[in-house]
Write a structure and sequence with these properties.
Blueprint (H helix, E strand, L loop, with lengths): L6 E8 L9 E9 L4 E8 L8 H7 L3 H6 L7 H8 L4 E3 L2 H10 L8 E3 H8 L8 H8 L9 H20 L3 H10 L8 H13 L9 H7 L4 H4 L24 H8 L4 H5 L7 H16 L2 E6 L5 H16 L3 E5 L2 H19 L8 E3 L9 H9 L5 H14 L17 H7 L20 H10 L3 E5 H9 L10 E4 L5 H8 L2 E4 H11 L11 H9 L6 H33 L14 E4 L2 H4 L2 H32 L9 H26 L6 E8 L4 E8 L2 H8 L6 E6 L9 H7 L4 E6 L5 H4 E6 L10 H16 L3 E4 L3 H16 L4 E4 L5 H10 L3 E5 L16 E4 L10 H7 L5 H18 L10 E5 L3 H4 L3 H7 L4 E5 L4 H8 L9 E2 L3
Parallel strand pairs: 1-4, 4-5, 6-15, 6-16, 7-9, 7-10, 8-9, 10-15, 17-22, 17-23, 18-20, 18-21, 19-20, 21-22
Antiparallel strand pairs: 1-2, 2-3, 11-14, 12-13, 13-14, 23-24
Helix pairs in contact: 5-7, 5-18, 6-7, 8-9, 12-14, 14-15, 15-16, 21-22, 23-25, 23-28, 24-25, 25-27, 27-28, 29-30, 32-33, 32-39
Length: about 950
Amino acid sequence: MAAERIFVALDLEMTGHDPEQDEIIQIGAVKFTQTRVLGRWGTLVRPKVKLPFRIARLTGINPNDLNKAPVFDAVKDKLRSFVGDHPIVGHSIGNDLSFLAKQGLALDNPSLDTWELAMLLMPSLNAYSLQGVASALGVSVDNHHDALADAEITRQVFLGLLARLRRLNPKLVTQVIRLTDNVDWPMKMVFQTLYEEVWQSQAARPSGNIGSLLASKGITEEDITSNLLSEPPRPSPLQPKEVTEYLDESYIESIFSPGGELSKTFPGYEVRDQQIDMALEVVRSINNSKHLVVEAGTGTGKSLAYLIPSAIFALKNNQRVVISTDTINLQDQLYNKDIPAVRKLLGGKGKDLRVSLVKGRNNYLCLNRWERFLRSGINTPEEAKFAVKVLLWLQTTITGDVSELPLTSDEKQFWQRVSATEETCTTRVCRNRKGRQCFLFRARVEAESSHLVVINHALLLSDLASNNSVLPNYDYLIIDEAHRLEDQATNHLGFEVDSRALHELLNRVMDNSNPVRPEGISARLPVHMQGSRASNASVEQVTNIAMRLAQRTERTRARVDEFFASLGRLLPASMGMQNGYDEHLRLTAEVRGGEQWEGVLLAWENLKLTLRELVDEVHHCGELLEGLEGLHIAEYEELLAEVQAIEVFLQDYIHEMNSIITAPTENDVTWISYSHRYGTITLHKAPLDVGGILQEELYSKKKAVILTSATLTTDRNFDYVTGRLGLYEFQQLMLGSPFNYQETALLLVPTDIPEPGTAGYQDAVESLVAELVLAAEGRTMVLFTSHSAVQATQKAIYRELARHDILVLSQGEGSRHRLLQQFKSNPRTVLIGTRSFWEGVDVVGDALSLLIIAKLPFEVPNEPVFVARSETFADAFNDYAIPQAILRLKQGFGRLIRSKTDRGVVVILDKRVLTKRYGVKFLTSLPNCKMQKGPARLLAPEVKRWLGQNSEERLSVSRS
């Protein structure tokens, strides 16, 4: 970059995130070049609104100091003068500029966003906050959240990013310049000035525009669309041994025992009897080709208990073991932590252990679609940013997995245009399987040669639904986080469609939303024929079929709207009249026998007719294109694949929708839902019983299937999960936690508050939550079963806790990851959440010392699948609703004690565990901790005592 170019790093602190409601309270600015600081300027600003407690705590700003500060109008001219016309550098600078403009200072200077630049140059970061980027670059972050200090950090971060930018291949920089040449993308300035630096070092600079300069250096359009990666060596597929070599139980036991290989390899390793028991049962399952279900309490170390036997068996026999998880966190833990530990344990043999992580198609970049995306032209700043991000990432990625790429919500729509899809992933279409091998194919080949293949439940079930066309053949399967398998199977073996999805499919045929640039195959067909060797007659045929496709699509589009309108008439008048979440109407025999159903049937027959006519036209189009092979039609393979894919999708929609409307089976649950948020109606189908499907299509076809989780039993038996998942031929093993819950965990239940759903309950919850959080001095998570309860409680306790310097965070205020990071970073915090926080939250240590469970987590009684499945039980409440709620309660309870040294309190604000006959089932299903019950007024003192403070009054000790 030019040595004397001047920049201004800017940072603001505000009362909140909304420029329409919040105001600036502090400004910091640093003027600098690449070699020196030219000046610093900063000030507090007096807002017209009250300083929120959480902002005061975050920034350290005293409200009294703000009262003495100047108003914004008194300082805006000084800021304008300091900034001048220099480029403004900031972290998420667009937000700061919006606040300035809202308060009367609209700056039109070029702006450079360090957040955006970091995402381009450092795609592997876990966090892109200013503090996270600074730490990754080695920049000190003392006094973070002071505006002037943050402006200084921003300056150093910007210079650090420029240093990284200079390390890029100059050819790559020129590719970026060409891609963004005609787009008004602010970050282009950084690449252009770097590009100019390169040319300044040349003795003679060619004249002309950027395009001609690139051409003079030999950079062509083809270079931009080329992947620079070389093809890695292709490993050989596994060839299982003809004679199976079984595992030695005593050898496996010795690995886990005192003085064994685990203790020798990892000095901090703690021997756990439960882990040894599980490992030995896994050995027996594999050796004897028996299925196994294991509940392994928190702290068992179940991952190593199944990984070590599996890895040794796979190496001995050249066999493949597939491991399926539900959460990304566990996938990452297995692939990046546990499996490398197993390799280390195995010593020299560990180097031979081949492992792959496989995901669904749309997680991988398709090089063909990427090239097509670039050839279509970069027309907007958003497209430019996405294209450059992918281009830079391509130079370092080995997997092409989108999880490596930090995409904003807006950029994810572009990913759908470049990711692998079923229709593009065919031998006929994919030119990148030779030479520049495609990422998806590379992942599949790696899986074929791997001993351990780590997947998720979604991919496992997609493979099941597609007749095992996704994964390589395997005989041994481990399903971790098995408590989530039924829900995932319900989702992935079901079907749903709304009018938006159908319209999007029709748009792939014809989309006139932009009259200047129509999209879809009907618009592309005549264009692709230009310059081909096809006869005039063939070109005319293609043109005619394109016109017919457009006409059929328009008629079908109208029928789609009519059909979903007919579904809407089934809904009760009360639906859609209030703000809230999705409402459901199950398509029962009673609904199907009503007057409005005749209208649905008629509308469906009309839609089905037009869909079939469109399918015939699309099929005809495909046949016509197949007859034109070899005639140099532009992007012929991709065009034909798109036509064929549309035909398949249309046929699938016809089949699935018809099965819901006119031919539901006994194992189908069918319903429609209304979304208040989008105002849309969705048609659904789900299997009534997934256990039978899993048994017939999965378990029975494998030699050994091992299911495990920390929460699989209810009332100390596997009966419920056996029925739900079809585990009738499975051996069972129930292992408690190695943690001493009697010494580390206290369960409290109030005896004198109203029951949930009765008058006064919510008021009592709000009052008790505030008291308990104060007693714990923060360090609290509160779990609810509804968003409305979260919002009501947050509103009720916020001010009271703020007075005691305790911050309230609630679900919906940011991403789950961000909320958890905030919660972990400051002990004087309470985090309130609903279903997504009941599991998968791992907060070790004092940051979480008090867990409050507002009520027993029963399923919403009108949820269609729940209702339909309930009807299959003679006593649905006791045999279905209660066990399901117990498993969820166990998951929630498990958030508290995450290590051997953790200590804390669980409070259940639902006295039904004491007053109802079923309550004992909930209590006996929990870890064997100390339990106390008594008046609500004594809960807070008991929390103080247990967490290390004194209390004169004590509750009665009881377990029932």
